[in-house]
Give the backbone structure.
Amino acid sequence: MTEEIIIAGFGGQGVLSMGKILAYSGIMENKEVSWMPSYGPEMRGGTANVIVIISDERISSPILNEFDTAIILNQQSMDKFENTVKPGGLLLYDPNGITNHPKRKDITIATIEGAKESSILKTNKTANMIVLGAFLKLHPVVKMVNVHKGLEKSLPQRHHHMIPINEKAITIGMEKLKIIQDLRKVATMN
């Protein structure tokens, strides 16, 4: 099993920390992991993305041009990364702020309203965990017990009191996920 993921959005949306939690979770399962962030000089509001690879085998290169999964949090990232999803792959996005929705017919497309759901929780800092929960529902590449360990490892000690709300956010993401186009069902019918 190898999962090659791009997570992209604006700085401040938790893109890098979402990738870091996935990477730490993979490490907890003794998997091969690569975490390669890319971001502009702005701390918030600039573009940010991270490539995460989780594999049972050695990873030959952390640099990729195509991905099994793209997790998209803004229109700029949708424009840039929609066409990098491999045929049969997954595009998961938060529709908040997306004006041009994906058009591809050869991938699974799903949405999760992370921004909206996190405002209902009254903590906008959980939107990325809601999105992470939706991803893990579709692709359980790591076990939830290790996601908890990944949260502990990636969050500074002073923020450990936020772990329960982050875990709740992950559960909400799993429950509120909407599949728009599911190629997995089509593949099993053929």
